[in-house]
Amino acid sequence: xxxxxxxxxxxxxxxxxxxDSETVxxxxxxxxxxxxxxxPASDFTWDTDLATTQAGFAAVFLxxxxxxxxxxxxxxxxxxxSPFSVYEFDVAASTYEVGDLLGxxxxxxxxxxxxxxxxxxxxxxxxxxxxxxxxxxxxxRVSFASAFHAASANVNAAVG
Length: 160
Known about the structure:
By secondary structure, the chain is mostly beta strands. 7% of the residues lie in helices and 43% in strands.
């Protein structure tokens, strides 16, 4: 994968998160928290079908990687968990309205780390479209909702 991190606007809130030395992360990857380590969406375990897998991923969705972690590296990386930052992200070809719910897209039985698609309910969502696209588009401005940020709209984000 190429580095496709495209921050566009808003307030970034970076957290430093541990990464296992065998985990490979690219800047711009959608990350989840696996115990105490960050991992890309493509490493998330498939569960039954896409909707079930997206719901499980949303429950542990951490944020967007701001720096890579190559194989063999175990240093913490910076991850944006802010619900106020906007990224231009790859999306499944479609039209989009402001506020459309988005979850990670898949290829076969694997989530994609740098592409989203429209989802039917908030329990599957990790973000929202923040622009209108009247014609089919492959790129979209998106704000994400970490399950680990108290101000997030992620249904799993809670303190206490």
